[in-house]
Write a structure and sequence with these properties.
There is one protein chain. By secondary structure, this protein is an alpha+beta fold. The protein has helices at residues 53-70, 72-88, and strands at residues 2-4, 7-16, 20-29, 42-50. A four-stranded antiparallel sheet has the order 1-2-3-4.
Length: 90
């Protein structure tokens, strides 16, 4: 798990046989981890495809870092949608 700005980022990688690796990022607010409740997480899938796992994870984390710096509203909107889905789930 990475800490980027006000967010925690979990990066997952998947090997695609014959094609290399792909990565996804699950983003949550650091402050939400301090509350005793469900934590909204926004998932951004298939952010990178690279020949090695390390390169793929690094590329995905760079993508998240860039969004945190330039477009955190997009992340907040995704977290808001995720939170609404969690609150309406049975």
């Amino acid at each position: 798990m990475y800490s980027i700005g006000d967010y925690f980022v979990e990066c997952t990688t998947d090997h695609i046989r014959g094609h290399g690796w792909t990565a996804s990022a699950r983003i949550s607010r650091e402050e939400d981890w301090r509350k005793p409740a469900k934590i909204p997480k926004a998932v951004f899938a298939e952010l990178a495809e690279c020949p090695t796992r390390q390169d793929t994870e690094r590329t995905a984390i760079e993508w998240v870092r860039e969004r945190v710096l330039t477009d955190s509203d997009m992340i907040e909107k995704a977290l808001e949608v995720s939170g609404r889905k969690q609150s309406t789930a049975p």
